[in-house]
Amino acid sequence: MHEFCMINNQPYIRLHTPEQFRYSVNLSYMERSALECMFIVENGTIYKAVPYLNEPVLIEISSEDDRFLRIGFPGRTVMPQQEMCDFVIHYVREWFDLYTDLLPFYKLAERDEWLQSVVQPLYGLRIMGIPDLFEALCWGIMGQQINLTFAYTLKRRFVENFGTYAEWMDHQLWIFPSPDIIAMLSVETLMALQLTRKKSEYLIEVAARMTDGRLSKKSLLQACDYHQAEKEMVKIRGIGPWTANYVLMRCLRDPSAFPVGDVGLQNAVQHLLNMERKPSITELHELSKPWKEWAAYVTFYLWRVLY
DNA sequence: GGCCAGGTGGCCA
DNA sequence: TGGCCACATGGC
User: Fold this and answer.
1) Stated in angstroms, how far is A251 CA from B8 C1'?
2) Which residues pair with A46 in a beta bridge?
């Protein structure tokens, strides 16, 4: 549900959110890294360019009472046409994971003391998504086996070399490169950004598959079977179980996705359980049994404990 | 200077 | 199936 509003000649959409949502806790997640290049956060407002019919649309997101979302359109004095508004509303809902009902997750956490201690302080946090499948896959591949700071550096170089941007005030708001641009690059071109040879090959291969239609978000979601989608992704070189589950979690919206080999997850569990060593994969599967269906959410919340 | 990093593919038994 | 190892370089 939403309303179209005006304030000081600025059009905005007032978007209703589920009860299990708090803007502030999501905002602090968005503020976690100054190195992030796909959106800007300033004074509690998130600015982003979203791709609408190959045309970047600037949006600004803020909140009313920590509950309602306000979606504004910087630089516009009239409300955009209906189709664009519908697109933006859907984009924001997907980005903030507002289509997911978190009530069962919180009910589950109430019955598990350990889980509750992780979940309760972050009440209202959603898995902030990466709606663009190509971006999600690239980010997963780039981030493998390197520290997060360097991963952000690589993404920035990738985006600034091959993406497009819209200007807002003195900022550039970037649109992630489209697969057809990347599919045409040589391995050496990507290696110049300090991606490894293998990662460069993987990125170009994923781009080629998305360009010719062998791989798409639609086809992965078509079977309505996340396990099948995972199998499809893992067939592709450079996408292992971690990356596939990461993409299931942040793009395809499978609440039970579980990147169990994730070192951040392992560190968080080790820390919270006061273990002397990192938990094994087997131990993590054992631990996750009670909340298996919500493993993506638990993982996301656990990341917030350490990062 | 050394260990670790939001892993994966490939090889070997 | 399960255990190593190269990759390849920045961050701290």
Assistant:
1) 21
2) A41, A61
Which positions on chain C have an atom < 7 Å from some protein CB? 7-12
Confirm whether A254 is a catalytic residue. no
- pTM here is 0.96
Residue A198 beta carbon within 7 A of nucleic strand C: yes
Is residue A61 within 8 Å of residue A69, measured between CB atoms?
yes
Within 13 Å, how many C-alpha atoms sit on residue A191's CB side?
7
Place A34 in a pLDDT band, splitting at 50, 70 and 90: confident
Residue A161: CB partners within 8 Å, gap ≥ 6?
A: A193
Q: Contact A178/A134 with Cβ under 8 angstroms? A: yes
Choose among A48, A146, A139: nearest CA to A92. Answer: A48
C-alpha–C-alpha distance, residues A202 and A183, integer Å: 10
Show which positions of strand B are touched by protein (CB under 7 A): 4-10
Counts of helices then strands in chain A (DSSP H, E): 15, 8
Query: What confidence tens digit (pLDDT) does each residue in A261-285 have?
Result: 999 999 999 999 999 899 999 999 9
Strand ranges (E), A169-290? 171-175
Assess whether pLDDT exceeds 90 at residue A57.
yes
- Amino acid identity, residue A300? F
Picking from A65, A52, A50, the residue whose alpha carbon sits closest to that of residue A14 is A65
